[in-house]
Amino acid sequence: MKKSLIEIKKIYEKDLKKFGPNNKGVGWKNKKEATMRYEIMSGLMLKAKKNHSVIDLGCGLSDLYKHLKSKKFKTNYTGIDLSEKMINICKIKYPKNNYYCLDILYDHKKIPKVDYIIINGLFTQKGNYSNSKMFKFLKSVLQISWKKTKVGLAFNVMSEYVDWKNRKNFYLNLNKITDFINNNLGKKFIINHSYGLHEYTIFIYKKI
């Protein structure tokens, strides 16, 4: 069976150990920019007119849930992360939420089907993995997530349109990912490359 890239988990757990349970502890150096990402991601669900279910895949410390709650979203929230350390913190902070510490590529049968899946930051750092291996990982995660989604999913990646590149980050060609989405997931997608954080977010919908 396929398994996720374990080094990515180690990168985030190293940040958590170094910086503690805050934005830097989940790999976001700037709190303001981290909040901007949560705002962008919540846009996936703006047309939801009733209580809906959402999976935060690679949930970290559930800061996305905190943001959704502050915006009065009525959400049945499930957090999933490969890191037991992250999940343990989340369970203490938000005991009423659903949490799973598992590998989506290996244990996806345990994951419930939901209205929306949000993947914020999972595909931005690659460590020492090659671009081809990282892209293969991304495609596998998206395909499984798509099967678990009733309405739509969102994810972000680093843009190739930058002045310089960090060799530890994963930058994805826009045409490459849109070709994959069109051929394997669906034709209803929105690309947001406008918010100035050297990345872009894609929403993919089964129905709008």
Task: Give a short synopsis of this structure.
The chain has 208 residues and is α/β, with parallel strands linked by helices.
Tell the overall outline.
globular
Q: How many domain modules?
A: 1
The computed structural class is alpha/beta
Low-pLDDT stretches are none
Mean pLDDT figure: 92
> What is the terminal separation in angstroms?
34 Å
Q: How many runs of DSSP E, i.e. beta strands? A: 7
Note the beta-strand portion: 15-25%
What is the CATH architecture descriptor?
Answer: 3-Layer(aba) Sandwich
Largest sheet: 7 strands, mixed
With helices defined by DSSP (H or I, 4 residues minimum), what is the helix count? 7
Task: Determine the CATH topology.
Answer: Rossmann fold
Spatial extent as radius of gyration: 16 Å
Q: So what's the CATH class?
A: Alpha Beta
Describe it for me?
Helix content is 37%, strand content 21%. The chain has helices at 6-19, 31-42, 63-70, 84-93, 104-107, 131-147, 174-184; strands at residues 52-57, 75-81, 98-101, 114-119, 149-158, 189-192, 199-205. It is globular, with a radius of gyration of 16 Å. A seven-stranded mixed sheet has the order 3-2-1-4-5-7-6. It has 208 residues and is an alpha/beta fold. It has seven helices and seven strands; from the N terminus they run ααβαβαβαβαβαββ. α6 links the parallel β4 (114-119) and β5 (149-158). It has one domain (1-41, 50-129, 144-163, 197-208): Vaccinia Virus protein VP39 (Rossmann fold).
